[in-house]
Backbone:
């Protein structure tokens, strides 16, 4: 029997705590709506407070600075994007399964990438908050909630790319020779980030990430509109080719 079966249930939140949580969520929702309407660079605490019928001073009781509100918005956006990617991957047919009407079912990695693309297209302003031009004067807290949320999403793609491969296989991946400095840097990454991967696998992951993310950025910012209704097909083909190339490099 698991040791925590008899662990005491967490104490219920007090009325004050429940009200604070509800108010915090309402502020975040209002800020997201403001970003959706005006873009991330137009984020204004005064405008957010006004939309809620409260003063800026009252808003500061929940978010003591603009940076703290931005950090919460970025963290939530990363978490929502990670949920979309995770949900897409979970709904996928396992790579080893054969669908009766399709002898070449989509790999889970491709489906996860398509979940990433769909979320970005559905929430372009929030995607820009994450990956567009940095907000002036904002610096994310070092090893803070935004970093942890980003690592969570990275872990999903790491799993979908490399699940089933041994450390020895990943170490022997066929990549151009890494410089001693880069290899040392990759080996010293935090273990809860990419530090548990061999340097060669980390190089492959970053290459695949850049390929996928670059295509999504081009589409979200309107640079592939000339492809018209076939952008999804182009993306799927590119992700299939990218995945085949990366896995071909792993013995």
Residues:
């Amino acid at each position: 029997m698991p040791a925590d079966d008899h662990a005491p249930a967490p104490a219920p939140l007090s009325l004050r705590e429940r009200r604070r949580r509800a108010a915090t969520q309402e502020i975040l929702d209002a800020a997201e709506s403001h970003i959706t309407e005006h873009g991330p660079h137009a984020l204004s605490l005064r405008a957010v407070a006004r939309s809620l019928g409260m003063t800026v001073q009252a808003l500061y009781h929940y978010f003591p600075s603009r940076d703290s509100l931005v950090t919460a918005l970025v963290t939530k956006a990363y978490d929502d994007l990670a949920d979309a990617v995770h949900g897409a991957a979970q709904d996928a047919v396992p790579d080893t399964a054969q669908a009766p009407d399709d002898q070449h079912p989509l790999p889970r990695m491709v489906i996860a990438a398509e979940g990433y693309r769909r979320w970005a297209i559905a929430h372009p302003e929030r995607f820009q908050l994450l990956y567009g031009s940095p907000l002036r004067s904002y610096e994310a807290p070092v090893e803070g909630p935004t970093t942890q949320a980003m690592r969570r999403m990275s872990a999903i793609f790491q799993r979908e790319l490399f699940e089933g491969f041994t450390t020895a296989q990943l170490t022997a991946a066929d990549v151009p020779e890494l410089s001693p400095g880069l290899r040392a840097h990759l080996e010293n990454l935090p273990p809860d980030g990419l530090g548990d991967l061999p340097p060669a696998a980390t190089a492959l992951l970053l290459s695949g990430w850049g390929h996928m993310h670059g295509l999504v950025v081009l589409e979200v910012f309107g640079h592939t509109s000339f492809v018209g209704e076939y952008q999804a097909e182009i993306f799927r083909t590119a992700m299939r080719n990218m995945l085949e190339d990366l896995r071909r490099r792993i013995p």
